[in-house]
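User: Please look over both lines:
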Amino acid sequence: MTQSLRRGEPYRPKKRIGFKLTVVSLLNRLPPLKKLLQYISKNISTLRYRWRARRLATALSDDFDVDKIYWVEPERIRYSSLLEFNIYKDKGQAIGGDWDRLEKQFEHLDVYIAFRERFMEGEDWEDTFFYQQTLDDIANGRFLVGCKSKADFDKRCEDFDVLFQNIKNVGYKPQSEVLFEENTRNLMQLEDEITVNVGRNGDLIFNNGAHRLAIAKLLGVQKIPIKITVRHPQWVDFRRQILLYAKDQPSGKIYQPLTHPDLQDLPSFHDTESNRFDLIRKNLSVTKGNLLDIGAHWGYFCHKFEEMGFDCYAVESEGLHVYFLRKLKRAENRHFKVIPKSIFEYRDIENLYFEVVLALNIFHHFLKDRASYFELLNLLGKLKLKEMYFQPHRPDEPQMEDAYKNYSEEEFVKFILEASRLTEAEFIGATRDGRKIYKLY
């Protein structure tokens, strides 16, 4: 008789502890090390650009147009430089030091106070501290504003009166226009624009032309022509980082336009942003309140809508973009809130109401896999909002080939309406590249 045999034991593969699993297990036992490595991983791209900008400084061209005219709001120039740089000899240079500390407000200067007292309050020049101080300086051998005597300065004050009335009556004009109207060949007068210096964080700091800047501020002139004399090396370094980033992109450009006057010359891939902004602005049913920008990138829309009076929330999860977003926010002295995480991880969203939500070319990324698709569904169900401006993708884009879902434009709009508290949709126009924008409300 053949001996009966038992079935073999169930196969149990040997547990193999891979390298990755070993590292993860080790890091879980060492929380401080894990936190450090997570920080390095998240910020390594940022550190790379900062390092490259310094290392390749000599290989990058800081080819500034030293005679370029920038049109800015007078109220942007809030502080006065702690050093006054020569508008002829120093222009175009990067000069270090602490001259850019924000310690001396322009509107606290004696000249501004005197102009306010004279033109807004009707005081005589002789009753201002500026007048008396200037006469003391002249008496001590300091020849200010081209004056060597009391008679010279009295004539200068008369010129200030004429300048004020001229700007008040005909508006603020650049020196090139003044030269043309006066038919003069004094080309040195072209240098006589208001000049500013750019501090390490991007602040526009007053350097020269106090009389015209004071008048522009007092008259509420909307925009004035300025020139840049000196830039802080740290600001130049940041500008180089942006140039390096652009150089690394397939287009050779940054993604969105930049709103800072000293960065507006850098070409952007989406030069249609102003077009998108204008389309949305014209269709808004509100002019203030909370605005949520999902996928804010470097914050173009938050800059523009904060100018209008909105309280903006910029959601951006990519570490390098967050770095530039925060630096540009500081450069423009904006107040919008930066949310450096995925919109799905932003827990406070349940406690906020948004008058406006921007979802421009972002939601299709959440269709690519099942998990993010259901996270999007959950988000749309939780969002408390008045209106959304939605720009869908094109279904035939290569990036959507293996997507979990791939809606047509109309299907995507219907999906959002069904998943959210919104009920109506309106096509408001297309950008210059043909992409449609819908208002959902």
Remarks:
- The longest strand covers residues 224-231.
